Amino acid sequence: MDLSGTTVALDGLGVESGFDVLNEGIRLAAGDGIRLRVFGPADAIEVSGLPGVEVIDCTDQITNDDDPVPSVRSRPDSSIVRAVADVGAGNSESVVSLGSTGATMAASTFGLKRLKGVKRPALAAQVPLPGRTVLFLDIGANVEVRAQHLVQFAWLGAAFSKSVLGVERPEVGLLSVGEEAGKGREEVVEAHAALVGAGEFDFIGNVEGRDLPAGNADVIVTDGFTGNVVTKALEGTVKRVVGEISAAARKNPLSAAGGLLLKPALGGLRHDLHPDTTGGAILLGLRKTAVVGHGSSGSDGVANAIRLAARSARVDAPGLTEEMLHRVGVNRGSIDSATDV
Amino acid sequence: MDLSGTTVALDGLGVESGFDVLNEGIRLAAGDGIRLRVFGPADAIEVSGLPGVEVIDCTDQITNDDDPVPSVRSRPDSSIVRAVADVGAGNSESVVSLGSTGATMAASTFGLKRLKGVKRPALAAQVPLPGRTVLFLDIGANVEVRAQHLVQFAWLGAAFSKSVLGVERPEVGLLSVGEEAGKGREEVVEAHAALVGAGEFDFIGNVEGRDLPAGNADVIVTDGFTGNVVTKALEGTVKRVVGEISAAARKNPLSAAGGLLLKPALGGLRHDLHPDTTGGAILLGLRKTAVVGHGSSGSDGVANAIRLAARSARVDAPGLTEEMLHRVGVNRGSIDSATDV
To answer: How far is A327 from chain B (nearest CA, A)?
Structure first.
């Protein structure tokens, strides 16, 4: 997709790996012709010679240690609030942060309006797997949900999968403790019933925990508590297993030689499983797209987060989502009334 | 621990890998002096020459395809119902099944009484990790819980960790979406408040999804929906990563050679991460112990499930649990009244 000419607002504070990594990420994204408005310290962000990239000096960072909602409300000069406001004002089309997820969610929810009829925005992670990337939501925006929210998450995920990730007819699964329609919490059972026969995507019914790493769906829907815990458990497990194998390879000269011989073959796998590959999590359900990259991103991760935001703007993912919701009536109460209890 | 003379009732149906594996598992456990009463087909279970092992002929198997509760109620001659009844009648001290988890939970909950004051039995998995095995509960007995149930799960887990797993002062964490006491669902926040200052174990507060694979606690407590999904996601992830690495090793002769050189060093890791190592999941909160081994267990898995049940009987884990609950008042309403809403 040609991304040239799209404009992204970038929160320039919060990249854990430092400004060199951020600057290199900016350079890579600018190389695709993406225009950037970077809200960060002018003396650390290096953009000379990059056409279409502008720095707006800004030094107040809301960190992971700050309580998101009150911080966002009380600090209009913070980099994330200004970056979001830039989108709200129409200067940029999407916003990207590599900083606090909570602050980005809070600032975006306040600063960008919700799509018509959407009750709750949801945070979606792209789980990178060899062969298929799974869009997994909600991973933390809503720790408590009702059936109608789960139903909307399915539509939000399907719309993004179609419009931005290019999956023509996404397979959508609902996370539960068994495949049968009657398995799971009350709101899950109810959402299942409401999703059967959904047009525009293939509802494949309930999926289980193992279906996520197996990549058995394009979109997997759950509440923000379960989604958050599962995402972190999954990342931790990959890290642990890879770490233990590396440790085993360092055990003695023979296994070290084995590790060296295996290295090139493992390179592709490492790339496939690395969060940098996908560009980060996306806040869905708002009129503009907000992307939250990993704080520990490398320069590729920074660039891919920016590209994801640009792609979403180029195809007008929020607009297409609203159209779809309107077409199927999810935002006009027809599903609400069936599932809201 | 000397396990000789303990008596375990074994459901002899449901081992996916077949009777040869089951028979070898029985032989291994009998080698430790454990007495066994096996409920299964007399013509398939081979125990001749094994002192203290008896087969009670039984061919009706409740499978994963059967609805557990009605099946258990209507099929008194099924192997799992008879094995549980054998414990109820005092002929055996604990029960082990390698078959349907749902049927084992249903049969045990009906057939073995709950400990005094325990509201809900919980299913605990031992997550095998190099260095530390984490006891993780509830992994599926209760898809919906209240704060008081989470509090009891913490005590049930701590008591088992102490008495059977030999952890002198278990570190107990409560699974949530952030470390702060205020993070998470309402019932989690409430349970957190009730657990602060618990005697007899170290309540380390909220833990996150990544703390499970990292092994950052001896016991991790959650509801049965989240626990079920996370356990399956974790198992699936380990399988996937190991599978992808094996596939990478088969890619070309060089990497294949590397894989071969690494193999011995990886053997220990495979053993550490293998579900067979720990013997299976344990149903806690009943007057006798029920162990559910993996259906795909090898003979070591079968033997370790039997050993776990025997160990629990030898130390009288249920009795010690009840004593502890009584001592701290968890079963007398003091915590109920603080947290039951």
So the answer is: 33
Task: Clarify whether residues B214 and B102 are in a common domain.
Answer: no
Three-class SS state of B27: helix
Segments of chain B assigned E as strands: 7-11, 35-40, 53-57, 94-97, 122-127, 134-137, 171-175, 202-207, 219-221, 281-284, 289-292
Is residue B239 in a domain?
yes
Considering the domain architecture, whether residues B132 and B260 belong to the same structural domain is answered as yes
Closest partner CB to A233 (pick from B140, B209, B241): B209
Q: How far is A69 from chain B (nearest CA, A)?
A: 14
Q: Does some domain include residue B338?
A: no
Any A CB within 8 A of B249 CB: yes
Same domain, B129 and B273: yes
Q: Provide the residue type at A206 as one letter.
A: N
Q: Are A230 and A237 in contact (CB under 8 A)?
A: no
Any chain B CB within 8 A of the CB of A224? yes
Mean pLDDT for the stretch of residues A109-118: 92
CATH number for the domain spanning A235: value is: 3.40.718.10
Residue A225 in contact with partner chain B when CB distance is under 8 A: yes
Q: Which residues sit opposite A36 in a β-bridge?
A: A8, A53
Residue A335 placed within a domain:
no
**pLDDT tens digits, one per residue of B179-189:** 999 899 999 99
For chain A, what percent of residues have pLDDT higher than 90? 71
Interface check for B68 against chain A (CB to CB < 8 A): the answer is no
In this predicted structure, which of A11-15, A115-119, B260-264 has the lowest mean pLDDT?
B260-264
| pLDDT surpasses 70 at A332 | no
Nearest CA in chain B to A182: B67
Q: What is the mean pLDDT of residues A243-272?
A: 77
Token couple for B194: 């009730």
Q: What's the number of domains chain B is made of?
A: 2
Confidence of residue A272 (pLDDT cuts 50, 70, 90): low
Residues B5 and B85 in one domain: yes
Distance CA A37, CA A190 (A): 44
pTM: 0.91
Q: Print the domain residue range for B99.
A: 1-118+285-316
ipTM score for this prediction = 0.89
* A25-55 pLDDT per residue, tens: 999 999 999 999 999 999 999 988 899 999 9
The answer to whether residue B341 scores a pLDDT higher than 70 is no
A168/A108 same-domain check: no
**pLDDT band for position A250 (50/70/90)?**
confident
At residue A246, does pLDDT exceed 90?
no
Structure tokens given for A58: 């800004």
The confidence score (pLDDT) of residue B272 equals 67
Residues A194, A267, single domain; the answer is yes
Closest residue of B to A242, CA-based? Answer: B241
